Amino acid sequence: MDKIVILTGAGISAESGLGTFRGAGGLWENQRIEDVATPEGFARDPQMVIDFYNMRRGKHREVQPNAAHLALAHLQASYPGEVVIVTQNVDRLHERGGASAVIHMHGVLDALLCNACGHRWGWPFERRLDLATACPRCADAPTRPDVVWFGEMPYHMEEIEAHLTGCDLFVAIGTSGQVYPAAGFVRAADQAGADTLEINLEASAVRSDFARAIIGPASQTVPAWVDALLRHRV
Ligand code: NAD
Ligand code: ZN
Known about the structure:
Rossmann fold; 32% helix
């Protein structure tokens, strides 16, 4: 049976009201990436980083999955083959839209990580994070969100590479193709003989690595693609 690997990026959650990374009104417009999304930034000014993540975590309570998240969950449940969702997003909108078995390669916003002992634990969106929030295992503080920052290795890479080399179709949705290693997934899938499709608002930086593309807002293009795939296997 066919296997589909789907990589999603910030663009799939844009219409839910979560800012993308670099676009107009993007998340980092008023913040320097080095200050809020690097281990060095956290070491220098943990309060600033914690404030930034409390702001992002707060937004998550107000947003809902959109038609693109729902369509992927429907595909996962209805497709006769295997559908693996790999996301760079740290939101929970795939799961909240009904998806199962999502691989979070950049971590999640609703968990914390202890810098001292490596312990990770859930931290629901309703709870605030502050400088005194300590690791339940070793009591180290402050603790950080369990998200992958610049300069850090994404999670689950071996598992993802195995999925890429074993897939028949690779689809990237709403990702700019500027952040590696995710931007290189299309090449790995292509070299393994898979068909490749990009779905984005505009052509990404790695558009030429894909066999084909569908251009438009994810809330419309993704449900239409899923419908066509389930009907005609395209
Ligand atoms: P990016 O912001 O670099 O790129 C977003 C891409 O989405 C762009 O190519 C843009 O054209 C496209 N896009 C924007 N609106 C769209 C829409 N309505 N429909 C379809 N496509 C749309 O994001 P990225 O490639 O995911 O990489 C950025 C990094 O930022 C990731 O590491 C991710 O962890 C992080 N991030 C996560 C979230 C989140 O969890 N929701 C939000 C912002 C950034
Ligand atoms: Zn600890």
